[in-house]
Predict the 3D structure of the following.
Amino acid sequence: MSTSPAVVAAPGTSGRARTWALATVLASVGGLLLGVLTNLLQGWLPDAWAQIANSGAVWSVVAFVAGALSARRVGLLVAAVAGLLAEIGLVVGYYGYAEVARDGMGSLFAPLVWVGMAFVAGPLFGVAGFMWRGADPRRRVVALAALAGVFGAEAVYYAWVLHYAPQAWGCLAVLVLVPLLMGRTHRERALSLLTAVLFSLLAYFVFHRLILTALLG
């Protein structure tokens, strides 16, 4: 008889590992495919609407969805990782398709900047998606305000910098619709909308006015 202690896997450990692996793989593949799609949409959409295809707001939705879909089966950490991998997949898919099927992606500087952004936005919106699926109303308010607020920041950018009025109105509509459609109570909707307006102004000045202006000019 062997005197070595038996090694028994904890119940459910292998199942959780498979779920975590599936969540991260799906987030990566989904981000990659959507990155290619956003590149294609820039050629398909008319005029200034092409700008929206790969906007930071639209890409943030992908990380939010990755976190939300992971919420019931995995923990907060995996939701953050899924959001990160989705964002990196978007960057790789977008610029990879530009390199292979178009005239090339040019300098590596812009892709590296967006990968850096992915390390911030990916976990942030992955966690937001996770919190939105949770039971805490305060966390749901913050999650919805973050998602709506990034569209509000885009609306300010389109209106004041690019002077794209229809696109600005479109993003403002999303800012309003996200809390109204995704909130669970009237109070939650009102608080999410109010907080989203504040987040919009903060995100615009921090992201567009400080970070992007400093990095991309």
Notes: The CA atoms of residues 57 and 150 lie 5 Å apart. The chain has two domains: 18-134, 137-217.
